[in-house]
UniProtKB/TrEMBL annotation:
All copies of domain U-box, residue ranges: 10-99
Gene Ontology MF terms in the entry: ubiquitin-protein transferase activity
Classification via SMART domains: SEL1, Ubox
GO biological process, any: protein ubiquitination
GO cellular component: cell division site
Pfam families, per database record: Sel1, U-box
Protein name (record): Sel1 domain protein repeat-containing protein
Highest taxon listed in the record's lineage: Eukaryota
PANTHER family the record matches: ACTIVATOR OF C KINASE PROTEIN 1-RELATED (PTHR43628), CHITIN SYNTHASE REGULATORY FACTOR 2-RELATED (PTHR43628:SF1)
The organism of origin for this protein: Seminavis robusta
Length: 245
């Protein structure tokens, strides 16, 4: 093959994770000598509890992973200097900005910002904005938000206790928090109290009147979110069905 037909080598080819096919933000070297995005190779390892093999060579390998700090630094330099361009570079820069936003949010929360604490809980619960899903950390941040006087934090603490998300299940205490938040205007708490009374959940007896009352608050005069429009529509549908039955 002539040199004219040879594909020009791209530095990014040696840096991308062979599983995610992106520049690894948290690169680790596996026992097959390859560098991967940590979450990608950890998922591969988790999905192969027996007879673990390299996803590249298909040869047997162990589970040990070593942080590839130089790999991360080199990627940062090549993107910053414009050596790596296109979608790979754009996604990397997005992660850099996301990391800065994460650090800023953590800084605000550590400084006592109740809203920041609640938002951290949301991010950890759902894996938003670069955060890994972690129900325990979500509950911890919701608890801190609640103690700082954030009503949304109170409602989330209630739901986590009721369902055992990231904390030992405690329906009585969960209902205390949920009722408190609903009383303070949380449409989220009001909706789920209404649903609980409608279906007799969390140790509550079925109470149509109470269900209608809380659902009306959820779709009406509750000043506190964070119900989405879709969730409000669901609450309205539940309410309409109760009133027509």
């Amino acid at each position: 093959m002539s040199s004219a037909n040879k594909r020009k080598r791209d530095p990014a080819d040696e840096l991308i994770c062979p599983i995610s096919l992106e520049l690894p933000w948290d690169p680790v070297t596996a026992e097959d000598g390859r560098v991967y995005e940590r979450i990608s190779i950890e998922t591969h390892i988790k999905n192969h509890p027996r007879g673990l093999k390299s996803p590249i060579t298909n040869k047997k390998m162990g589970k040990k992973l070593v942080p590839a700090i130089q790999h991360r630094n080199m990627t940062d330099i090549l993107v910053e200097d414009g050596v790596i361009l296109g979608d790979l570079a754009a996604k990397w820069k997005e992660k850099v900005n996301q990391k800065k936003e994460m650090e800023e949010l953590l800084k605000k929360a550590d400084a006592g910002g109740a809203c920041a604490m609640y938002n951290l809980g949301v991010n950890y619960e759902n894996g938003y904005d670069g955060f890994n899903e972690d129900e325990k950390l979500a509950f911890q941040w919701y608890s801190r938000a609640h103690k700082a006087g954030n009503v949304r934090g109170t409602s989330s603490v209630g739901m986590h206790l009721l369902n055992g998300w990231g904390v030992a299940k405690n329906e009585k205490l969960g209902l205390v928090h949920l009722s408190s938040a609903a009383g303070q205007g949380s449409n989220y708490a009001a909706k789920w109290l209404g649903v609980a009374f409608a279906n007799g959940e969390y140790g509550l007896s079925v109470d149509k009147a109470m269900a209608i009352s809380w659902l009306e608050k959820a779709v009406g005069d509750c000043p506190e979110g964070p119900l989405t429009d879709e969730s409000i529509q669901d609450a309205q549908q539940e309410l309409d069905e109760l009133k027509s039955s």
